[in-house]
Structure formats: structure tokens, C-alpha cells
Amino acid sequence: MTPTAPTLTHEQRVAASQLAVANRRRRAEIKNLVKCGDLSLEEVLLLAQHEDCVASMRAHDLVAALPAIGEVKAARIMSQAKIAPTRRIRGLGPKQRAELFRCLAR
Fold first, then answer.
1. pLDDT value, residue 80
2. In degrees rounded to 5, what are phi and psi of residue 88?
3. Of 27, 33, 86, 102, which is most buried by a Cβ count within 10 Å?
4. In terms of Cα–Cα distance, which of 86, 79, 92 is closest to 42?
5. Which residues contact 83 (CB under 8 A, 6 or more apart)?
6. pLDDT tens sequence for the chain (106 residues)
7. What pLDDT sits at residue 105?
8. Cα–Cα separations (whole angstroms), residue 58 to 14, 63, 65
9. Strands, DSSP E only, in the chain?
């Protein structure tokens, strides 16, 4: 038996769509601030404790947004830190965070 999607009213669909767009814009804003150097990795991790849309950002995307780090370096860092590329910020444990900082300090 396959699960069926809940039946939503037009207003509920519009509200959900607007929320999704706002969340994507906020995550893009955070990534731009990190890329410019206005936000550090530590600040983003603290911000993720209060903002759900930031906490739902992929850790790989955050690492790739750091200055002087691109997709390839981010993948290597995530691999060295033993963090799955699909892991979200909220899903990082204390040991994974410490290992991520250690790998970035190299």
C-alpha cells in the first residue's frame, strides 16, 4: 500500500509554496554571507539552533560556500570528516562538528 499525499486546499498549497520560497531565499542569503566572509561557520551553526530553515541546509553546501573552498574541496573535506554529503546541519553531532573544524583548520 503506497502512501497518498494529503489533500490540501488551494490556500494551504499557496502558503506552503510561499514558505518554501522564503526558506530557499534565506538559505541563499546565508550562503552569500558566508562566501563574502560576513558570517563564519561557527556563527552559522549557532544561527541554525534558532532558525529551522538554516538548520535544514546541507552541510556540504555550507562548506562549499566558505571562502576559497569550492565543490571539490568541500567534497574532500566532508569525506575526511566522515560526514555524508546529504547530512543536514541539524544532523551534525558534536564529534562531527569538531572533526569538520579540524579538517578545515588544515
1. 94
2. -90, 160
3. 27
4. 92
5. 59, 60, 92, 96, 99, 100
6. 788 877 889 999 999 999 999 999 999 999 999 999 999 999 999 999 999 999 999 999 999 999 989 899 999 999 999 999 999 999 999 999 999 999 988 7
7. 87
8. 25, 9, 11
9. none
- Taking the model in full, what pTM does it have? 0.83
Which residue in 62, 69, 66 sits closest to 91, CA to CA?
62
Instruction: State which amino acid sits at residue 45.
Output: L
Please identify which residue in the block is written with the cell numbers 561557527.
42
Per-domain boundaries in the chain:
21-105
Q: How far apart are CA 26 and CA 55, in angstroms?
A: 11
Q: How many residues does the chain have?
A: 106
Cite the DSSP H helix spans in 37-93.
41-48, 52-55, 59-65, 71-80
